[in-house]
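Lab notes, practical 5.
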Amino acid sequence: MNFMGYRRDDGKIGIRNHVLILPCSLCASETARFISSQVAGTVYIPNQGGCALSAADLEMTYRVLSGMAANPNVYGTVVVANTCENVKPDELIKRIEEKTNKPVKSVVIRDVGGTIKAAEIGVKYAIEMSREASALKKEEADISELILATECGGSDPTSGLAANPTLGEVSDKIVSLGGTSILSETSELVGTEDILAPRCVNEEVSKKLLDIIKNNEEYFEKLGESLRDGNPSAGNKEGGLTTLEEKSLGCIHKAGYSPITEVYDYGEMIDKKGLVVMDTPGQDIASVAAMVAGGAQVVIFTTGRGTPTGNGIVPVIKITGNSETASLMADNIDFDASGIISGEKTIEENGKELFELLMNVVNGQKSKAEALGFNDMSMARKCNFC
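Output from the prediction step:
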């Protein structure tokens, strides 16, 4: 099975054709936003970090920001820096160039005389890249080159009963065709160890999986807290979920039944086919950001209670198993899977329809979050894996 996309110089295939305006820090984000607002075909990342970082968090930030620039949906990147942040533009460019040979330029606000002059330079760079990107023609690519990110947020019992199993059908379909699907949210794998570990392709992968789950719980214990203090969230509980284990057992249905081929660190570049796991927090936007940095070109996001969030680099498709949410949040929900609960549809039927929607979006149709221009960004730190 094939889809149409943009072939990059590094050989990867994108389903969108963005020029990324990438701020090194929160202090450079408004200048980056201003540059992006002047040039069609660009997107920017509202980076809330970049300063006051531990060594581990600085490394994580470099990994995520460079991964976003390397994402196949990005043609090229303009890096914007303030000058005093921990994330240095030269080092960030070095990290980007280690991952991809796509175009990259930079501008430092203080060095050129302030925001207006920096914007003038940044706009020139962005226009040049945008014009180059617009000249690209789509070409046919095999679905084995697709990386699907799976996410759930605002979960309720319908998520585990309908939305997540529907997504699991799509995940298995992608894997069966030679592609890649990512299962995320480590905190919501707690309690499923006996189910997931036997699905790993070997003992090494199984150990990695068990280690990230164990480390996640132990981190909170060292701080004298419990992972369960904030998970399930108040909204999850209001929707009917009572324990973390109950939430986790619904969460893993997103991954279908395929073998787990690898486990990746937060924001690490995906280089294996099949079903993989990424160590991300339960905070939805930070989890999505990591998978985008890992190379996912598209996200399917299940929600019971409803969420409007999107990502500026990749289309985010929203699916719910809650008929009330599908009605109340029709502006945001792309796919209603509640027919499983009402008995009107089977999981297999819903899975087939969702796969068709996915391929339409992959081939250019905008998801609702994408059409609304939603561009949410949050980046995990070691202290907020919760």
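Observations recorded by the TA: The longest helix spans residues 115-134. The chain has two domains: 18-135, 143-384.
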